[in-house]
Design a protein that fits this description.
- The structure is a homodimer of 348-residue chains.
- Chain A is of the alpha+beta class and 348 residues long.
- Chain A has a seven-stranded mixed β-sheet. In chain A, strands 9-8-10 form a three-stranded antiparallel β-sheet. Chain A has a two-stranded antiparallel sheet with strand order 1-12.
- In chain A, helix 4 packs parallel to helix 5.
- The longest helix of chain A is centred in the N-terminal third of the chain and has 19 residues.
- The relative contact order of chain A is 0.16.
- At the A-B interface, strand 4, strand 7, helix 8 and helix 9 of A face strand 4, strand 7, helix 8 and helix 9 of B.
Chain lengths: 348, 348
């Protein structure tokens, strides 16, 4: 598989999204965040998305350079109208706003309207944690993404509704980023393309019967994904998914049952540790906690315990050296869509 | 099993805790919340706790009537020093404070210090939701309660660290209240006493090997509880447990690794929907979501889908009519501890 340096791929993304109509600075924001996800090995939210994002620009679903405005605001809260700019551009705006409000008033909650795809959810609380804040993030998807059954049901009513949580530490922050379903839709697609079965207990066919066959999921008729914690504790996964739906959708005034033109609803909550125990003590206690957790003797069959996000940061460090692998097909499609918007890619 | 009316048990609790030294109003708060949990069928956090709470008063670990003070405060945030009053008294103080701040400033985050046991966690966000707010709650336990292994480990490093979420609806609020482990310690005890095995995949023995034997959990040497999502997705449960630990412990300045005299750390976050889409629209959208979720066709082997907390409220309504059953042994122990503090229980 060909590999690329992160700097080269960032330049490709910047050129591509600029040619789609984005100001250079905004084109660069999108490229940077997608390259970061690829560096972490989270390719479903990485450079592969260059293709879809460019196509969405061509289709008019993403509006590069569109103004991002405040639909409603108080000292601690805001609803941001993302105007169908790139979701990674509007999320950066929301992060900056949440940071400012949390510094001024101890905490903040910022919600989106009219947001396109927000990428890897952990990106956003991670950025707040890198600036010294404690941050929560929740993202739903509109009805077209309702692949996940509520516990006890056999038709999708919720999306994979991820939640993320990040806090400052010495060095890299701790970043939890998890879906509230048994498996992500993107992972089912990857397994299907490589001819592998889906892990048992993850998906249902259209009749509501368990299956390991990705074709039974995609249909038609379409199957569904089970909530996290299935089979016995799936009510917890459904509860978490509803929490995500309510905080990132309903609280912003978005109906769960209407076909809406946006992609994600995003909710960011930022908390300033200086309003509580103080940043210095917080980071010291996090170090103590991290040592305590990672010092747990390993269970049989395991190599040890790591903190959330630890594997992702390790892979990022490694790929900074070795480069980012992309499949020939992914690279071909990036080249193709670049051609459509008149960008000829320089050799690496 | 003898059954009791909720009114009678509330009076018993009020008399008992008043005799322990609590002002009547505070004694009544504790009794009310424990009776509510019993009505919901959550007896591990119900009237059964009369016994332990009274003993904790006698031991000086609960300090009835102790002042509850503000250790630190801003317009949106506070650390409340609970002074080892009953946890259900200090939590009520925290709820009132979070409500006031959220109404004044859109949102609030209130943390505890020196809190005794906060009872059923859902109690607190439910109370905020009944007052029209969206609320999150997180509770950790100090090191003595570290029964739960982090994913990949074989020694307890976290408590069962529940999280709860409640929102206003027409009628009863939606209340999610879940531990971040595969099973609660109290449930292991109940199964042991009734001679039943523990569900497979829930606990480890002291060597880190899977077991269904409650005696292998209690030891000595003590075993441990697996994180929610085990065996394959336990890293998510550990991530959630760490989120709870950080928000309810570390943010308040409490070390995770020190033997501390308090029982729970409590974090409450309250959000006023009027700062976002408005209360009226919020409740209308919740009704729409609830209809959509509960209208999901049932999967084979299931009877349908309910909203979080729905079973608890149904059982409460039923027990308001039929009374609260308590085992003979529980009632004997309540009578016994009442005698110790000079309370002779009236006949029902």
């Amino acid at each position: 598989m060909p590999t690329f340096t992160p700097g080269y791929l960032e330049q490709v993304g910047e050129d591509l999204f600029h040619a789609c109509g984005a100001p250079v600075a905004e084109a660069r924001m999108v490229a940077e965040d997608l390259v970061q996800a690829s560096l972490m090995g989270l390719e479903s939210h990485g450079v592969t998305r260059y293709i879809w994002y460019a196509e969405e620009c061509l289709a008019g679903h993403i509006r590069p350079g569109a103004p991002i405005t405040l639909a409603k605001e108080t000292g601690t809260t805001a609803i941001v109208d993302c105007g169908f700019n790139f979701g990674l551009v509007s999320a950066r705006f929301m992060v900056d706003l949440a940071e400012q409000k949390a510094r001024d008033n101890g905490m903040a909650c910022v919600l989106s309207q009219n947001s396109h795809h927000v990428g890897r959810l952990g990106t956003h609380p991670q950025r707040l944690a890198e600036r010294g804040l404690v941050a929560l993030a929740f993202a739903n998807s509109v009805k077209a993404g309702h692949f996940v059954v509520p516990f006890g049901g056999r038709e999708g009513r919720l999306a994979t509704n991820p939640l993320a949580f990040a806090v400052p530490m010495n060095g890299q922050p701790m970043v939890l980023d998890m879906s509230t379903s048994m498996i992500a839709e993107g992972k089912i697609r990857v397994l299907m393309h490589s001819g592998q079965p889906i892990p048992p207990g993850s998906i249902l066919d259209a009749e509501g019967a368990p299956t390991s066959d990705p074709l039974a999921f995609y249909g038609p008729p379409r199957g569904s994904i089970l909530p996290f914690g299935s089979p016995d504790l799936g009510y917890k996964g459904t509860g978490l998914a509803l929490m995500v739906e309510i905080l990132s959708g309903i609280l912003a005034g978005a109906s769960s049952t209407t076909d809406l033109p946006h992609i994600n609803g995003l909710c960011l909550i930022a908390i300033d540790p200086d309003a509580f125990c103080g940043r210095e003590r917080f980071v010291a206690l996090m170090q103590e906690l991290s040592d305590y957790i990672t010092g747990t003797p390993a269970a049989p069959g395991h190599t040890g315990v790591i903190m959330p996000g630890g594997l992702d940061f390790a892979r990022r460090d490694q790929r900074m050296q070795t480069g980012i692998p992309l499949s020939d097909e992914t690279w071909r499609l990036i080249t193709e869509v670049a051609g459509k918007v008149g960008v000829k890619l320089a050799d690496q």
